[in-house]
């Protein structure tokens, strides 16, 4: 039985009186197969976003701006309205949407090449303006869709298809810490880094996504959640090894933590 | 409404406001900046969206976002800024959302200068971005016409879900003329049935230009091309001036065309029956009407503020039936009525000597 038909049959199952449903397909997630590689974090992150949208009951007024990169088809996987942006331009596109639809919940979903390289200017100025949009920044240290080239977030020494000898800081620079940079900007309400390398970290990731959406619901400014994500295919690792790589290599360059949390969010005690 | 004296860039801005523009996103660049400044004052007064973007790239992508939500969105720029907008224009064309762009052209290539130019003709009509598409390009010659075309531009953009570009030049943007403004229309209330604004009570929508399957993308392209054919058939605009009895035809658009009118009159005073054909729509090019006019002509003179870009459209319409001469000024130099008139008279005398084809100089520039 495929996972799809299993899911469909589970929905039809009647729940006996002494049992309750504790885990179900989120209404905000489309019931379609995803194209992601085994061990890729995108699918789980999509699901977390969908769960948060359901929990906040905002599916009918949420819009996603999808990126160019592996998550280019994000708009097929969410069960709400979306647009597909040009590479790096999602914050500008989201700005246009939010200015016309100020009462809608608008978020961009961007990778590290998209946000930290070609779109660095767009995210910087959206932050400067304090655009009340959400930014889900998925950092897997490489350009995934094009086959694992060096990204601005690639750790020093890491071999990629465009840094075959390992990233050399003398000629290729050091990894950019965009979340820490954006945290210095007053228009940013929420800037944190989370990770997908363990279940405990994933729970914290979901809670951060929920806080980011909450910041937008409160109109506090730009909210950004950077998520350290696995790319086993381009890292040439197994899915399990990829999680260890996040913990051992990426998290040392990119420590998880809160870099900016608006005071008005700290008092919010939402449960996830 | 009474006529009042307006500056070109500000008249365009006010006309867009009266046409019901919801949102303006732009970036300063001479010689269009007054348009942005006017919007900065007026749009907030009316409770509409004005935003000075961090770049032309961001501005066109903000337009893209606002247009996806069904808004009447626009930007304005000048040649180097339009180059930066090409990426966004291509996505907008591929996604089939409507928007309006004003290009107040300046001298190029590169940083060039801030003087009037028509050297964006190819860029606007042929290569406004990667992929197969054409914006609807309208080139006014007077401020009244600029206002009227701007007023009609959002209706055209929404009717065809296409990009409409108002192509002016630095002279049009900076000059002052009496203009009668059209009445104020309220911004549209209803959101189009293709727009994204939250999937309440309906299935979700996605606006995209991505089709990985080759045959699917070919079908999308075929649909786009079919739409362009409808636009090409229905939206050709032109003006004929003193062409009824003309033997020699000047073809010019925008600022050059109004100068050419003086030249045509001067040539007639010197005994040459000249007329002017002025394309108002640069894409679609009014080839059919030009082709019809050619039948009675003994020669054609194309005058542009570039190295001969519309010249190619004229040659295609003429199809070798009569000699085509060209007078081009570049780098922000505006051709004078006298030099255009001299070219018309020279063309006529060369033809009368019977060696028109042999003597024609297809490209002629002032030293």
Describe the model:
The complex is a heterodimer of chains A (about 270) and B (about 375). By secondary structure, chain A is α/β, with parallel strands linked by helices. Chain A has helices at about 5-10, 40-55, 75, 90-100, 110-120, 120-130, 170, 180-185, 200-215, 230-235, 240-255, 265, and strands spanning about 60-65, 80-85, 105-110, 135-140, 140-145, 150, 190-195, 220-230, 255-260. In chain A, the strands form two sheets. In chain A, strands 2-1-3-4-8-7-9 form a seven-stranded mixed β-sheet, sandwiched between helices. In chain A, a hairpin with a 5-residue loop joins strand 5 (about 140-145) and strand 6. Chain A is globular, with a radius of gyration of 18 Å. Chain B has two domains: about 5-235, Rossmann fold (3-Layer(aba) Sandwich), CATH 3.40.50.970; about 240-365, Rossmann fold (3-Layer(aba) Sandwich). Chain B has 13 helices and 16 strands. Chain B has helices spanning about 10-20, 35-45, 55-70, 80-95, 120-125, 145-160, 170-175, 215-235, 255-270, 285-295, 310-320, 335-350, 355-360, and strands spanning about 5, 25, 50, 75, 100-105, 135-140, 165-170, 175-180, 205, 240, 250, 275-280, 280-285, 300-305, 325-330, 365. In chain B, the strands form three sheets. In chain B, strands 3-2-4-5-7-6-13 form a seven-stranded mixed β-sheet, sandwiched between helices. In chain B, strands 10-12-11-14-15-16 form a six-stranded mixed β-sheet, sandwiched between helices. In chain B, strands 1-8 form a two-stranded antiparallel ribbon. Chain B starts with a strand and ends with a strand. The model of chain B is unreliable at about 355-360 (pLDDT under 50). At the A-B interface, strand 1, strand 2, helix 4 and helix 6 of A face helix 3, helix 4 and strand 9 of B.
């Amino acid at each position: 039985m495929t996972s799809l038909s299993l899911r469909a049959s589970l929905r039809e199952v009647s729940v006996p009186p002494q049992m309750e449903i504790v885990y179900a397909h989120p209404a905000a997630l489309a019931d379609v197969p995803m194209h992601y590689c085994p061990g890729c974090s995108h699918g789980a992150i999509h699901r977390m976003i969908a769960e948060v949208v359901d929990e906040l009951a905002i599916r009918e007024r949420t819009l996603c701006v999808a990126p160019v990169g592996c998550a280019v088809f994000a708009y097929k996987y969410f069960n709400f309205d979306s647009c597909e942006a040009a590479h790096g331009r999602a914050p500008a596109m989201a700005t246009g949407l939010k200015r016309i639809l100020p009462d809608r919940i608008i978020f961009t979903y961007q990778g590290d090449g998209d946000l930290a390289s070609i779109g660095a200017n767009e995210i910087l100025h959206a932050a400067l303006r304090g655009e009340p949009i959400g930014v889900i920044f998925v950092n897997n240290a490489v350009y995934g869709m094009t086959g694992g080239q060096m990204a601005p977030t690639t750790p020093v020494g890491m071999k990629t298809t465009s840094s075959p000898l390992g990233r050399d800081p003398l000629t290729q620079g050091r990894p950019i810490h965009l979340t820490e940079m954006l945290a210095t900007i007053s228009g940013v309400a929420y800037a944190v880094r989370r990770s997908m390398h363990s279940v405990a970290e994933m729970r914290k990731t979901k809670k951060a996504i929920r806080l980011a959406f909450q910041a937008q619901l409160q109109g506090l400014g730009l909210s950004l959640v950077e998520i350290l994500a696995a790319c086993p295919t381009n890292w040439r690792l197994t899915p399990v090894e990829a999680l260890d790589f996040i913990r051992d290599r990426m998290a040392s360059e990119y420590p998880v933590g809160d870099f900016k949390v608006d005071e008005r969010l700290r008092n919010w005690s939402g449960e996830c | 409404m009474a006529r009042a004296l307006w500056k070109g860039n500000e008249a365009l801005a006010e006309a867009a406001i009266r046409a019901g523009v919801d949102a303006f996103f732009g970036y300063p660049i001479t010689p269009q900046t007054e348009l942005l400044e006017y919007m900065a004052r007026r749009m907030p007064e009316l409770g509409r969206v004005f935003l000075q973007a961090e770049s032309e790239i961001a501005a066109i992508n903000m337009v893209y976002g606002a247009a996806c939500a069904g808004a009447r969105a626009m930007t304005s720029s000048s040649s180097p800024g339009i180059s930066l907008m090409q990426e966004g224009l291509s996505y907008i064309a591929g996604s089939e959302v409507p928007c309006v762009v004003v290009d107040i052209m300046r001298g190029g290539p590169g940083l060039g200068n801030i003087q009037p130019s028509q050297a964006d003709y190819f860029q606007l009509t042929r290569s406004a971005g990667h992929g197969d598409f054409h914006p609807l390009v309208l080139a006014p010659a007077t401020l009244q016409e600029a206002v009227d075309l701007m007023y009609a531009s959002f209706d055209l953009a929404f009717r065809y879900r296409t990009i409409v570009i108002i192509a002016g030049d630095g002279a049009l943007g900076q000059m002052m003329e009496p203009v009668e403004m059209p009445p104020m229309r309220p911004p549209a209330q209803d959101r189009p049935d293709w727009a994204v604004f939250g999937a309440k009570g309906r299935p979700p929508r996605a606006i995209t230009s991505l089709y990985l399957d080759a045959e699917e993308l070919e079908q999308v392209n075929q649909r786009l091309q079919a739409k362009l054919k409808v636009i090409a058939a229905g939206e050709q605009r032109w003006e004929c001036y003193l062409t009824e009895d003309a033997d020699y035809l000047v073809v010019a658009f925008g600022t050059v065309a109004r100068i050419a009118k003086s030249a045509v009159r001067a040539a007639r005073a010197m005994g040459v029956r000249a007329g002017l054909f002025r394309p108002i729509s640069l894409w679609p090019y009014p080839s059919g009407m030009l082709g019809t006019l050619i039948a009675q002509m003994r020669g054609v003179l194309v005058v542009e503020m570039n190295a001969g870009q519309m010249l190619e459209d004229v040659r295609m319409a003429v199809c070798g039936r009569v000699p085509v001469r060209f007078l081009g000024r570049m780098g922000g130099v505006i051709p004078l009525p006298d030099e255009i008139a001299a070219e018309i008279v020279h063309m006529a005398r060369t033809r009368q000597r019977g060696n028109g084809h042999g003597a024609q100089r297809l490209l002629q520039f002032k030293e």
